[in-house]
Structures are given as structure tokens and as C-alpha cells.
Amino acid sequence: SLKQEIAKVIVGQDKVIEQILISIFSGGHVLLIGVPGLAKTLMVNTISKALGLEFKRIQFTPDLMPSDILGSEILDKDRNFKFIKGPVFSNIVLADEINRTPPKTQAALLEAMQEHKVTSGGKTYDLDRPFFVLATQNPIEQEGTYPLPEAQLDRFMFNVVLDYPSYEEELQVIKSTTSDRNVILNKVLDAEQIISYQQLIRKIPVTDNVMEYAVRLVAKTRPNTLMATESVNKFISWGAGPRASQNLIIAAKTKALSE
Fold first, then answer.
1. How many CB atoms lie within 10 A of CB 235?
2. pLDDT for 57-73, tens place per residue?
3. Which residues in 67-94 are b (16+ Cβ under 10 Å) and which e?
4. 144 falls in which pLDDT band (50, 70, 90)?
5. What is d(CA 222, CA 240) in angstroms, rounded to the nearest whole number?
6. What is the DSSP letter of 218?
7. Residue 154 burial by Cβ neighbours in a 10 Å radius (0-12, 13-18, 19+)
């Protein structure tokens, strides 16, 4: 039902949508790489509406400050400090062109992505559940950008590459977007149902040999270790961390349940 609802607006891109949905139900985050004009914002907005979730978009720019994302404290009329929540207080946050903002602002997302909390003025505020960050990067323009540090890249479950639609898909897109067609999206799930699915997914048993396979696969990416091959030692500086093994297993559970 969810995929049918999304297909009312988004033509094709089935693999990308599947990976985004796996990430949401696994409690992970996605880094989406694609050139401008491939409907990244529309896709995320459509998914959030079908899931019945609150959606916020943040356009990352070189002058964006951490307080523009997290929120800031202001003096109210009674001269008391009051915290005004920023756009990160949402269920789905689209961090558009995340590599266009300085590391200080990029780092502001780290605590939110990992701990699902925001600290300001010595106080900690919990983010609403479910919480999902979808960050985008433009692969063709690298001038005036700040590459994401490894610590931040490690927070993303998937790195999804969005490609151009096929000829038939693009024809369908043009037909639907240049007419007066008005699509009404129905809410298929709500936040409580999504949280219950996330909890259910974690209860799915996984056999030891599958766990061992995932850990071996990740361990083989680490140079100068017992499992590393000659090519890994030669070409890789740093292998994947334990978070990669965790993500492989939880994503496999989600995919298994969805099928």
C-alpha cells in the first residue's frame, strides 16, 4: 500500500525508495547522491506524507549556523530564556546539500543523528520518534564544499546514488508534471505504527552463521588484519567499523520482513 501511494507521485526509482524505506524502518539515516532536478526533495516529502510524518527541509549554505538547525534561546517578554526549537525537531529532516556548510554546522547534526537528542544552554531535549535524516550531495559541483568527515559519514546507514530516469519514465514524468493533474496522497501509516514496526524488526531472530557472515564481510575491509586480503592491504587505508556490521544485520532483518 505504501509503495502504491508513493508511486502516485514518484515515477520509477523503486530501488532508491526501497532503500529509504528500509533505512526508516531500521532506524537509520541515508546519504543521497544525485545531480539537481531528480526530485530528491519531492521523493522525501512524498514518503513523509504517506507515512504520516512531519517533514522539514534545511538548505545547507556556507553561512548556516548550528543554531539555525538545532534552535536557540531567546529572552521572552518576562526576561526569561526560552528555547525555540529548530527544524531538526521533526520526524524526517532533509539536509539538502549537506557538504555546502562548514564542519561546525555539519557536526551539529551528529548528536541528533546518533543520540536522537539536542543539547542547548545546558539542557537536553529529546527529538520526536521516529527520527530520520536524509542528506543530499551534488556529485558534480565540488567548489566551495566541505567534504563530510569520516565520523559523520559513519552515521549514515546507506549511501544511495540517484540516477537519471529511463526514457519511458521521463516521458511519464513530463506528462504528469506539465498538466493540471492534482494528486491526493493518503496516509498509509502513522508514527506509532512505524515505531512498533521498528521494535518488531529488532525482535526477528538471525542465525549465527548469518551474523558471522556479516561480521567476516566487514572485518575483511580492514587492512593489516588476519582476514584482510593483499588488495585490501594495498588499496584501503581504513576499513568499516562495527556500525557497518550492525547496519548489515538490521537492514537484512527489515528487508526479510518486508518480503
1. 9
2. 888 888 888 888 888 88
3. ebbbbbeeeeeeeeeeeeebbbbbbbbb
4. low
5. 7
6. H
7. middle
pLDDT digits (tens, 9 = 90+) for 13-25: 788 888 988 999 9
- The CA R_g of the chain, rounded to the nearest whole Å, is 20
CB-based contacts of 192, cutoff 8 Å, min separation 6: none
DSSP assigned state of 127: P
Residue 252 in contact with residue 22, Cβ under 8 Å?
no
Whether the bond into 87 is cis, omega within 30 of 0: no
Residue in the structure block whose three cell numbers are 524505506 = 21
196-231 CB burial, b ≥16 within 10 A, e <16: ebbeebeeeeeeeeeeeebbeebbbbbeeeeebeee
Distances in Å between the alpha carbon of 120 and those of 69, 73, 141, 155, 217? 12, 8, 34, 21, 40
By the 8 A CB rule, do 27 and 130 touch? Answer: yes
Grid cell 549514515 is found at 156
How far apart, in whole angstroms, are the C-alpha atoms of residue 232 and residue 223? 6
Closest residue by Cα to residue 54 from 65, 64, 44: 44
* Sign, CA torsion 164/158/39/59: negative
Cell numbers given for 233:
592491504
Confidence of residue 183 (pLDDT cuts 50, 70, 90): confident
Q: Residue 256 — pLDDT band, cuts 50, 70, 90?
A: very high
